[in-house]
Amino acid sequence: MALKPALIWKNQHKKNVHCHIFTDSVSSLKALQRFQQNKNLVEEVRQLLDATVSLHWVKAHIGIEGNEAADKAAKSASEKTSIDVHLEIPQRSMKTKLKKLLMEEWQTRWHYGGKGRFTFNIFPDVKPSTCIDNRYLAQATTNHGPTPYYFKKFNLNDCNCRCGEDSDDGILLYYILSCSLLGHLRNSIRPGDQMAQLLQNKRTVHEIKAILHALYHQQSDIGLNQGDTIDQGQSNSA
């Protein structure tokens, strides 16, 4: 907005003299007429205006001497190899630019990071709006939860799942999709479902919470300690 340097010059050299400033920018004049507060260049220009300044609009390219001189000066300035006038970046623009840079850096680190790949396969794109405030869903999306393998790994208990089909990687997804001991809690969830798809459906989300709640609170019924025997018929019937 060329009005700002013009007003700065006026306040420095003709502070108490009434001046008329002409511009062919309708958008600039309309922006100054709006009542809402703007923490940007428009607000900075407003701060420079006082009763000694009158703003006028003139039509461009019709031979008005002052307007033609301003256009000529602007064209000449655009052909320079260096900039001799520096305007501050508006605060709003700076916030937008910084937010964009931070999101790009976050996405790059998330994409090429070596950890959290299970979660990455569910949420490949970073979004500030992605917020999981339920502990069971947090476990499901990170593959960290109270499985029998987890308790064995940290020497909290020496047991496997009574179904006899869990693996040593302790993947939580197995209990959500396949464990026969938790089959009575599944109505919509099917083996082979992807976690990203399950999280899009309210019914399957409810089932995930119920399954992990049971896994946490019924460890004695699900975990098989060493030395115990599996009643295969009872396991399959469950």
TrEMBL record:
Gene3D superfamilies in the cross-refs: Ribonuclease H-like superfamily/Ribonuclease H (3.30.420.10)
Alphabetical list of InterPro entries matching this protein: RNaseH-like_sf, RNaseH_domain, RNaseH_sf
Positions of the RNase H type-1 domain: 1-79
Pfam families recorded: RNase_H
Superkingdom field: Eukaryota
Gene Ontology molecular function, alphabetical: nucleic acid binding; RNA-DNA hybrid ribonuclease activity
Name used for this protein in its record: RNase H type-1 domain-containing protein
Gene source species: Araneus ventricosus
